[in-house]
Amino acid sequence: RHEISAHQYEMECIRCGQCAEACPASLLPQQLQWHAKAEEYDKLEELNLKDCIECGACAFVCPSEIPLVQYYRQAKAEIRTRAQEAEAAERAKLRFEEKKARMEREKAERENRFKKAADDRRKEMKSTGGDDAIAAAIARVKAQKSNEDNKAEPAVKPAVAAAIAKAKAKQAAAAKVGATEPDNSEMAKLREERKRLARERKAEKEQSETPANNADDKKSAVAAAIARAKAKKAQQEENASEEPEDKKAAVAAAIARAKARKAQQETESQPVEETASQEPAEDPKKAAVAAAIARAKARKAQQE
Question: Does the entry feature the keyword Lipid metabolism, yes or no (predicted)?
Answer without folding.
Answer: no
